[in-house]
């Protein structure tokens, strides 16, 4: 049994030397580590050179670790000795399939699945601001090993590119366009699709020096994103565990909050205003606070008797008030369709750019008060925070 395992590891080491290695999977885990399922190994190129990214999948989380080529064979040997019963090595000359039983092992060499190495360089493809072969997109499941966007991830891919395009235009319209260093905070970063893409674009395409932080409540997701950031050598990108309301963003130039639920969007907008951010971007999700308060104005009881219409009215009123509250706080605002509604149901975006001249605060305040009175809204979270 040991001979077959050693033969497999030698084939792996030889493929690295001959530059024929494509990828590797380790599976059928029977060891003692709870919830460990499989390991994916892919080549990745960072600023410090060529590495192999070991993406370890558990039942409810993942980790990613970069391993130097000269240490990779020993790492695979350790994993195979710790309970993995199958391994599949893909090279451009042969595929090798290893099966390990209780008393023996079997190794088969078959025709290669791939005849060319998968792309690992950051060659920008036409019409995309983001390279679809970027490692973080593969690690997050947006693209395949060959850099093709997965069919079920097409909407996410459009959203990623649209967000990066929007962010770039907002920077060009703001005072930040002439800056060298930017501090960016993504409140509610989730799995980091847009966070990674923004960091990648702003540093590698726009050439900004960047300090970027993603904030999320899920510890497992934060850990995975930090592993992927390390694997990509995104040295100034970090993810931290915390809530939007509690996390202290300090000084920030750009504050992002996409799909933060209900008043969490207001918390993020307030953090952006308080930090005097040059750009604040939010894509609101849920509008429960105002929906519970809103009443059909006089003469509109029959017009707004339908729940669906009242729901939409609450969304319009909430985001309209948010826009005006940001204007009262010294920003120029835009509210627009982020991506087409067939791609995501929550598709409106509020973008605020710090104004260069003072606003007519009294006039905006009167307008805000009038709207709240018209719809019977007694309080709104952002208004309360700013007060």
Structural class: alpha/beta
Question: Which residue ranges are poorly predicted, with pLDDT under 50 across at least 5 consecutive positions?
Answer: 122-126, 341-345
CATH topology of the largest domain: Rossmann fold
Total number of distinct structural domains? 2
Whole-number average pLDDT?
Answer: 89
Shape: elongated
Protein traits:
387 residues, alpha/beta, Rossmann fold, seven-stranded antiparallel β-sheet
Write the layout of secondary structure elements.
Blueprint: H1 2-18, E1 21-29, E2 36-46, E3 49-58, E4 62-68, H2 69-81, E5 84-91, E6 95-100, E7 105-110, H3 135-139, H4 154-173, E8 181-187, H5 193-205, E9 209-216, H6 219-231, E10 237-241, E11 254-261, H7 263-274, E12 279-285, H8 288-293, H9 307-328, E13 331-337, E14 348-354, H10 361-374, H11 381-386
Helix pairs in contact: 1-2, 4-5, 9-10
